[in-house]
């Protein structure tokens, strides 16, 4: 069998198997007083401690057994995670300094081997037909709305669409727990009651849960390792571990399975780590290996060159890849932020999927997926309807129809929408291509030939006439500040100017401003974009915003100034913001 090799990669580690095999879902502890021992076998050497106040139902999620399971995952993978994050930083510096990413010669045997396939949707009920997936955070109201939407799948988002306040993290897990069991209800302050349209999970969209990326921490859970050192827990392992521990058995019993979206991967070694996490977690919970299925978001430039290797590493657990277009644009800006004018993108609104470098990325994704038996899932159009404005709604429908028609024709097997009113539009576009078929994985796209040059042709976005404008600068400043203010108040998905903004689109806004300043970019009027000019725009934007006693605009402006106008470029705006404003 073909294998991936690396001189710096440690051999895979295996899970500690309990002395007595329990049934799926059997508690991992003999007693609540000794949660780290089960069946005479030590499950975890370290431990996790909750460092935040508990809400009325938090102990249903943060049980001693669940914390023991999280501790075990941290024992085994915390150091590997840290090493991969350090490698990310080194790679990013190399690219920023002029080292272009490319397809790895060392892993060419994997790409050239025609024999292997991923698990795909086989044996994963609810994942064969993914023609429309709705995305959204996991608060109770949004959970109910998504599951009542009529979409095929729901991306239950604990990452870009969710501000990671402690309440959001725990209450999101509670909402998922109750929804899977058919008991979730919600009543808003005005007395309106929301309930699931069915308690039969197979009659609702298939839940695909997205945990936080490898780079994010959960500071309200402290992991103390075997050596006595203490650090914040991994947001990825916390989100994944709690969801799997509490819901895997229930999902299987109800005709579904534990399915995940994996965000922000930057290469196959990070996919390998997730695969090892899956194996260890399934063994510990007595779930057959391969029960977990993951769809990987290809939303970083380095990962675009390792799609095939990522599929290979996750092959027994892999369902497909997704074209995470907004984070992909952010990654391109981040990678080339200091590389000069030829790498400067025009206004965000002018960078369409028809740009040659974006078309190359999506066509390579479809071809790669279908060659290996994986689903290719399209990205999210940011346009959202407004039920109070027929004109806005008509424009949103037109834009979404055009976008989804293009994706279906290109070979994608499904796509994302961010609003229930757009489910039928997207479904119609895919129905015209798929008909009664569940997908088009058999369409191999042998016509696609994409290499390094096509993926790195960032300048192609401006060759077609797209420009950097004064209006685009103002939009980036305005959207960036307003989104950050929403995020600080605990709302991670916000409709701003009739577009759905999340952490990914906010990252584009602030990183474009940073790159324009650093590159000496001029707008269409010939004026340079300088920090002084941006400060003037920032002040003017703030003056025009509606203020209230509870708003966070002053904090948002300070944070935007730091991540968009500072001398150094923070890799993510959310990491510093979390540490400063949410971790306490």
Lateral strand order in the biggest sheet: 8-5-4-15-14-13-12-11
Radius of gyration: 23 Å
What is the helical fraction, as a range of percent? 40-55%
Tally the structural domains: 2
> Low-confidence segments, ≥5 residues, pLDDT <50?
1-40
Give the percentage of residues in beta strands: 5-15%
Record field, number of beta strands: 17
Features:
13% strand, disordered N terminus, three-stranded antiparallel sheet, globular, TIM Barrel, 2 domains, 584 residues
Question: What would you note in describing this structure?
Answer:
This protein is α/β, with parallel strands linked by helices. It has 2 domains: 67-456, Malate synthase, domain 3 (TIM Barrel); 468-582, Malate Synthase G, Chain: A, Domain 4 (Up-down Bundle), CATH 1.20.1220. It is 43% helix and 13% strand. It has 20 helices and 17 strands. It has helices at 58-61, 64-96, 108-112, 140-147, 166-180, 235-253, 268-284, 301-304, 307-313, 325-335, 356-371, 390-410, 423-434, 452-455, 460-463, 470-488, 503-519, 531-543, 553-565, 573-582; strands spanning 37-38, 41-42, 47-50, 132-137, 153-157, 185-187, 193-195, 206-210, 217-224, 230-234, 259-262, 293-298, 318-323, 375-380, 414-417, 494-496, 499-501. Strands 8-5-4-15-14-13-12-11 form an 8-stranded parallel beta sheet. A 3-stranded antiparallel beta sheet has the order 3-9-10. A two-stranded antiparallel sheet has the order 1-2. Helix 5 (166-180) packs parallel to helix 6 (235-253). The chain is globular. It starts with 36 loop residues before the first strand and ends with a helix. Residues 206-457 form the Malate synthase TIM barrel domain. This is Malate synthase. Pfam families: MS_C, MS_N, MS_TIM-barrel. It comes from Krasilnikoviella flava. It catalyses: glyoxylate + acetyl-CoA + H2O = (S)-malate + CoA + H(+).
